[in-house]
Structures are given as structure tokens and as C-alpha cells.
Amino acid sequence: IHAAITMQTQRIAMTPANTIPIIQRIANAAIAYTAYIGQLFWPTKLSVFYPYSPLDDSMLQAIVLGGLLMVITLGTLVLVRRAPYLAVGWLWFLGTLVPVIGLVQVGLQSRADRYTYIPSVGLFIAAAWLGAALIQSRPAWRKPAAAAALCIVIGCTVLTVLQSRHWKDSFTLFQHVLAVTDDNPIAHNNVGSEYLHRGNHVQARQHFEKAVEIGERFGWKNIAARAHFGLGRIAEAGGDLRVAEKHYIDARVGDGAYSEAHNNLAGIYMVWGQREFESGDIDKGAILFDKSLALTQQALEHDPDNHEAALNAAFLYQFLGDQRKDLEYYRSAAGLYQQAIDLAEPVPVVFYNYSLVLARLGELDKAIRQVERAIELDPTYQDAQNALLQYLTQASKASSSPETNTSPNDVP
């Protein structure tokens, strides 16, 4: 029952079978079994993510440990009549770990401590009954055994306190992960992201580059994609948009569903497009804006809740609508501005731009409500105040002359 429930609940997270070769998964299973036993009774170097080891480095170890597991299994079966609790506990441990031992791959971790909650009960059964049997046959061991049990409880308490310190925050946690594991690209990405957030681009770049190297070496394209995205953000912050473009493209190649990578690449083309428009090259600017718009649409396809992508797409539709005098562009822009507003409370300029689009569509009442929201957030917003005055003037004219229609050229 435990195995069936575990397989069902993790079905969504299952990694395609060709991500990790079957021979490597079998070898890892033998290593993971013994690692779980070791860390259960000597809980050190615990990590939230244990990466795979290269197959060439782990094959001999897997063969030796796999043989050891077989010997222990045969031993418990030989002793099944004299000490049935050994077989029960051992087979409990082996059996309940089967769904999560990695033969059917779930995620990219080689093992996970959380998987041992139920399997470890089997080893404790074997240990408890064995201890009871030994004490029963040797009464003199009773007090030393009690003292040993007390020491174990105290030791586990101390280790728990020490381990809990690593969970202070994500930065502290993943720094610890890097200290106790090797070739861990997920940890490098997390630490790099925190350094980037803190403005330490030198340290961030080192961790992202390491994550790229490890991810590409192991074929973990989606992890390398995250690192490329981080390197792109660093390059963009430093003004090197060509380098940023390359990293964002690499991120999209590594993970086609990476919404943020699509949107950030769109942002670069928006910047370049604006420069072309400002220099007078309308055709080249329009090409770059169309390219940017396609990327924002892809970003929203993969993540409809991407607030920044919705805003970028709305601006692009609005700008291209102004250039091409096409009401369909304005309708698309209006829908995206509303989507962005629904996703997060925007800044005043978003309400102002939304009002411009609505006014171009002839929806003056809605435009007035949106520009008033902009002024509520920033009473000194002069452009919004001017737009409100113009909308009110046009609305007054429209009410006195019902046949008057609002043209896209009649609004600011």
C-alpha cells in the first residue's frame, strides 16, 4: 500500500526515463540504500539535495555495496527462525524504499532524507527487538544499555539543534549543502541567486558559471538554463546586452518553458527597438518590437501569471498600435493591462497607459476611471492630470454631440 501511494503521489514529478540512464539508476540504488543506513545511525552531512555522482566514479562502489546488501538480506533470511524480527525489519526497510530508491526516477536527486521516514521504522524494529533479545539473555547489560540509549537521545538532540542552524534561511541552507556535497548545481544556482539579490555580482557569477558547467556535464539542461538566466541578469545589470542576449537564448534552449527567460530576452529587444525608433529607423524598430512581442506571448503561454510579461506585451501592443493605427492592437493591449493589474497592484504609469489605450478605443468612461486611479496613487502625476482633463473635455463634447466619435488621434 505504501509503495502504491508513493508511486501515485510522485507521478507528476517523475523524470523522463532517458534523463538518467537505467544502469546509473541501478548503481545509485545500491549506494542510496547504504547511505540511508549510514546517515540514519550517524546523521552527519545531511543535505536537502544530493546530486548524482558520475557513473565511472560510482560503479565499483555500487557493486561492492550491492553485494553487501545481498549478504545482509541472505543473513536475515538464514536467521528468520531464530530472529524473525531481523528479516521483518530489514525487508520492511528494503521494500518501502523501492518506490523512491531511484529505479523509477523522481526528480534529479540521487536520494532524499525525507524518503526514509517510513522505511527507517523497519531498521528500528530490527534494532529494538535485537537489543531486547540481547539484554534478556545478558541481564548485566541492562544498565549499560539504558545509559547508551540515554546518550543516543542526548546526542540526537544536540545534532538536531546543530542541524536546525542551517535552516536559518535559504542562503545559509544552500551554503551548507555546498559544504557537504560535490557537484551540486542546484545549490550553486540558489547561492548564486542570493548573491545576485544582494548585489554581489562577482560571487553570483562564480556560482552560476559552476552550475552551468556541472549541469551541461551531466546533461541537466533545465538546471543549466537557470544558471544561464542568472548570468544573463548579471550581464544586463552591467549594461552588456549582447552577452545577456546570449545567456537568455541559452536559457530558452535549455528549457523551452522558461517564462522568465522569454520575457527578459523580450526586454532586451524592446530596448534595442526603442533605440531604433529614436534614431529614426522605424522599420528596424518595428521588427525588433515584433520579435519582442512574440517572446512575451511565449512567456505568457508558459506562465499566464507572469506579471512582467503581461506588462511588456501590453506596452508593445500599445506602441505598435500607435505606429500602425490598428484598433486590434489596442484591444490586445487593454486586455493585457487588465491582466497585469489583476496579477499585482501596478504603479501609476500602468493605470495611465491603460487609460490611453481605452481612450483610443473610445471607452472614455473606463479611461477616466483608470487615469483617476493613477492620480490617486500619485497626485503629482502631471501627465495623468492632463489626460484626465482631456478625457473629461472629450466626454463632455460627446455627450452634447452624440454623433461625435473618438479617434485614436484625439487622445494624448
N→C terminal distance: 67 Å
Q: Ranges with pLDDT <50 over ≥5 residues?
A: 9-18
**Mean pLDDT across residues:** 90
Taken from the alpha-carbon principal axes, the silhouette is elongated
SSE succession = HHHHHHHHHHHHHHHHHH
The helix-and-strand class reads mainly alpha
State the gist of this model:
The protein is 74% helix and 0% strand.
Could you walk me through the main structural features you see in this protein, from its secondary elements to its overall organization?
With 412 residues, the protein is mainly α. 74% of the residues lie in helices and 0% in strands. The longest helix is centred in the first third of the chain and has 24 residues, at 55-78. Helix 9 (201-218) runs antiparallel to helix 10 (221-237) and helix 12 runs antiparallel to helix 13 (282-302).
Topology:
Layout: H1 2-9, H2 22-41, H3 55-78, H4 84-97, H5 119-137, H6 142-164, H7 170-180, H8 185-197, H9 201-218, H10 221-237, H11 241-254, H12 259-279, H13 282-302, H14 307-324, H15 327-343, H16 348-360, H17 364-377, H18 382-400
Helix pairs in contact: 2-3, 4-5, 7-8, 8-9, 8-10, 9-10, 10-11, 11-12, 12-13, 12-14, 13-14, 14-15, 15-16, 16-17, 16-18, 17-18
Jot down its keywords:
mainly alpha; single chain; 18 helices; 412 residues
